[in-house]
Design goal:
Elements (H helix, E strand, L loop, with lengths): L55 H16 L4 E3 L9 E5 L10 E12 L3 E7 L7 E7 L1 E7 L5 E7 H14 L10 H16 L1
């Protein structure tokens, strides 16, 4: 199994040395290793981002998360999936017909409203690659949180966006999509996953 650890220094020294003008350039975003099922960070309740932590370090983390999500061809990615137990996730539901407003980061998200209607749809997870199953979730959800600059954000989503919002929020609470399956379905899916990991 690959070593998916991230050193504490991964976020350090985010800026290049000062240039002749005295200005610093931002470092390029990079792809981070995705933590896989079995890593304890995936089962932790993530810590909130403090009011004084809406800074360059958070922006760099979010940039790295977007790069990682895109490289893995995901619709969302939560910080615990890259080994950072903080309450932040990114989503990209543009392939479901949404515009650029369907790609964003949400910090310290919380659900403020869900619909009574239930939608059953397929879900997979970058931390449990190669397997998916049908998960029942509210058809629409409204969340509030903050953007990376600390500005209040309210977002309502249905379809892929709604599903991604709820899936990523689960990650921040140590819940995986397999936890929404029946015990029998979960055992079958995890057996298939383990077999894929052995290949």
């Amino acid at each position: 199994m690959a070593d998916n650890s991230v050193s504490d220094d991964a976020m350090a020294d985010d800026l290049t040395p000062p240039t002749r003008t005295g200005l610093r350039r931002r470092r390029a975003a990079e792809r981070l290793p995705v933590r896989l099922l079995g890593d304890p960070v995936l089962r932790e309740k993530a810590a909130p981002i403090a009011a004084d932590a809406f800074d360059d370090e958070l922006r760099h983390l979010v940039d790295d998360m977007f790069v990682t999500m895109d490289a893995e061809e995901g619709a969302g990615l939560a910080a615990p999936q890259v080994g950072i137990s903080k309450r932040v996730f990114v989503v990209d539901a543009r392939r479901d017909g949404g515009g650029k407003e369907s790609r964003f980061a949400l910090v310290n998200p919380r659900v403020v409203e869900v619909s009574d209607e239930i939608d059953a749809g397929p879900e997979g997870c970058l931390s449990i690659p190669g397997v998916s199953d049908v998960v029942r979730r509210p058809a629409q959800v409204t969340m509030e949180g903050h953007d990376v600059d600390g500005n209040p954000v309210r977002v309502t989503g249905s379809g892929l966006l709604g599903r991604a919002l709820l899936h990523e929020l689960d990650h921040l609470d140590g819940i995986l999509f397999v936890d929404h399956l029946s015990p029998l379905k979960r055992r079958m899916l995890l057996k298939k996953y383990r077999k894929l990991q052995e290949e």
